[in-house]
Amino acid sequence: MPISYDSLVAGRLNLPVRSVTQTLQLLADGATVPFIARYRKEATGGFDEVQIAAVRDQAQALLALDKRRDAILSSITEQGKLTADLRQKLEGATTLTQLEDLYLPFKQKRKTRAMMAIERGLEPLADRIFSLRDPNPEQTARRYISDNPAKAGQAPLTVADALQGARDIIAERISDDADARQRIRLLFEREAIIRSTVKKGKETDGQKYKDYFDFAEPLRRVPSHRLLALRRGEAEGILNVSIAPDEEAALDRLDRQFLGQHYAGAETADRNKASQDQVALAIRDSYKRLLRPALETEFDNRSKDKADEEAIRIFAANLRQLLLSAPLGQKRVMAIDPGYRTGCKTVCLDAQGNLLTETVLNLFASEAEKQRAAQTVQTLVQTHQIDAIAIGNGTAGRETEAFVQRLNLGKPVVMVSEQGASIYSASEVARQEFPDKDVTVRGAVSIGRRLMDPLAELVKIDPKSIGVGQYQHDVDQNALKKGLDDVVESCVNSVGVSLNTASAYLLQYVSGLGPQLAQNIVTYRAQNGAFHSREQLKKVPRLGPKAYEQAAGFLRIANAKNPLDNSAVHPERYELVGRMAADLGCSVADLVQKADLRKQIKPDRYVSATVGLPTLTDILAELDKPGRDPREALTVFAYDERVKTIADLHEGMVLPGVVTNITAFGAFVDIGVKQDGLVHVSQLADRYVSDPNQVVRVHQTVRVKVLEVDTNRKRIALSMKI
């Protein structure tokens, strides 16, 4: 990570230069975002993960800009066309758009109309006309025709052909002019309208896009979800979509630039009016044929990038909330994956999530089968000392929940989202975990483990399959993966990972590890038994000093000899905590166990050149609650027993629900009828809401009122204004 970008990055992000310099240095030295945010607060001035990631991304963008600048300079130099003035402009460009505008006249193009006209010797004619000083372009054109006779295989030029060729050359020059592009670009930014119409004959097939059959809105105001919907409709062949400002306004700007004092109606007596008319025609051709299509593509891409960025931001926020959902913890769980036809696949898991037994319950067969299923459930609960029951919320979920509740087992019954469970059950990860089990067993196990620890289980599934995104399959997939990987890494490290129980798939997200070192840890654990101290990590093959530094503080060892090994205190600060204990005449274990001893610690005494009050504050917080889980405690939710299908709903009903997804236009809520209802952003609160995440979060329990039910379209409108 280039440190030389520190001033530019600091300026763009409005951050202190010194803090940005230190952050870039740490990143260049191989530190991860979670490590820097947690253990290098003094160096960065307390940057959080969002700020550190922004510094990283800005520096990477500047590096990409410089690489492109170097490539352009090299290309123009090879053409022998690099002037001192052009070099200065290229070196002063601060965006890729500016660079590409300057490079456009020198970029290798496919053969254009202007190139063909130049080959016919018409460039001098174009120069003369473009100078606006030729009183008779037609007469001049005749001279060029006689001076440039047709070559073998070429049709003879007419006066009209020559003038057209000259206008083609002028049109391309106008299009390639950096100032002209910028003028029209600014017009697009301020006044472009995005329009859509339905394609002929697609009215029936495209009913879900009905709102966009005749649609227009200023591009700068269109929200991300609407733009992505328009683009999806276009991609599916339903809609025609265009982006452009008022054409007369665009031509007006070009006329002012290229006709100058002759703009807007010179006197007809002007002796050069004929050449002015030719340039005016070239301006209109340049805009319609070259400039407008190019800038429409640019703004199509630019608006798509902006919409992608917003959609990814929403997806990332939802994913964070989902991954940090309240865990049941290490409890013994029965998990049921409901099904009508094939029965309900049922598994029992121990407190570590290991599979104990499996069976199938036939709840939707004969009365005798139901009785056998009831007896089976009761026996399994007693035999395996089950603490809680997880039921998938898909097909037959509500009926299965009701069946289990009627057994009065005295155990919490929790509905668990099945989103992505089928993806996991057919994945390579699942095959490695359960090579001799079929997909139904793996799916049931996943449901149970999600209840125990949503984070540990959901990291095994592609986030796009978890069901908390907005048009996630339409956005830039590389940007989406990068954004979501950052979220997963952040969540895993903020919670911490049990070194002796975590899977390789979870360990790979720990700061400084990755897939190979994660697998090496699991292999070492299998061969040598449980880790007794963090120090043992140094014996894992290929886990060197840097990886140890980055990872150790995020790995926990329950019941370790050194209690700090089960905390977020980094091993590099063990000696410091030891001094604190020695100064109080006690052991580190006493310091962890006795609050009265911790209260006697005076942090100021331990400030040094490398350890400041931010780190000391974190250490003292960890000593108060070593190994604490930052996630909330699990609360059991119950649907309203009156509703099980959409047919049971009527306007005005007030029901409990669970937020399942948040988008820019509102929140989707599961009220137990297999079809989530939408609380539009305008119905989230009795005040203006710009961002639904300010009001609700994924997995939050809410009370909603039914506003409207559209059974045919399976749409439910809800409100939280009760």
Automatic annotation (TrEMBL):
The organism's place on the tree of life at top rank: Bacteria
Cellular-component GO terms for this entry: cytoplasm
Single GO term (MF): structural constituent of ribosome
Domain S1 motif: 652-721
Listed GO biological process terms: nucleobase-containing compound metabolic process; translation
Protein name: Tex-like protein
